[in-house]
Design goal:
The chain is α+β, with helices and mostly antiparallel strands. 24% of the residues lie in helices and 22% in strands. It has a 5-stranded antiparallel sheet with strand order 4-3-2-1-5, with no helix packed on it.
Length: 134
């Protein structure tokens, strides 16, 4: 017996998604979210969940192609808002600034930087700091 089946959502997909996905467990069939392969450090990709098998998730990529990946090798998250994207970019710039000032420190050490110092770097980013070539 095959452990999965294909499913085609009805034209009115709202019938499938009775409540919003909370971020816990797997997204509902028909949900639009982001996925990435955990071990490969992939970037997040926007997908539409088509169906699940016993070991694989099947989804449609933003370009319309279909793909499946092993459930134990991927993670899902909500589509980020513009505000979340801006906050992540700000944090990445603050980390980059920290590393350029403290160049002998490894990237992992950012996690150990005191919050007050992180906020100082964030404020410098907000004030227009940009790294230039020497």
């Amino acid at each position: 017996m095959i452990g999965w089946t294909f499913c085609h959502p009805p034209e009115d997909e709202s019938a499938l998604i009775k409540e919003q996905w909370t971020g816990e467990g797997l997204p509902h069939i028909g949900a639009v979210c982001e996925v990435r392969r955990i071990a490969w450090g992939d970037t997040w990709s926007k997908v539409k969940v088509l169906c699940y098998g016993e070991k694989r998730a099947f989804f449609q990529n933003a370009d319309g192609t279909e793909q499946s990946l092993r459930l134990d090798k991927i993670e899902f998250r909500h589509i980020r808002t513009p505000e979340q994207i801006a906050a992540e970019e700000r944090e990445a710039k603050a980390k980059e600034m920290y590393l350029s000032v403290y160049f002998a420190v490894s990237e992992e050490s950012w996690d150990h930087v005191p919050e007050a110092m992180r906020e100082t770097f964030r404020k410098a980013i907000d004030a227009g700091w940009q790294q230039v070539a020497p």
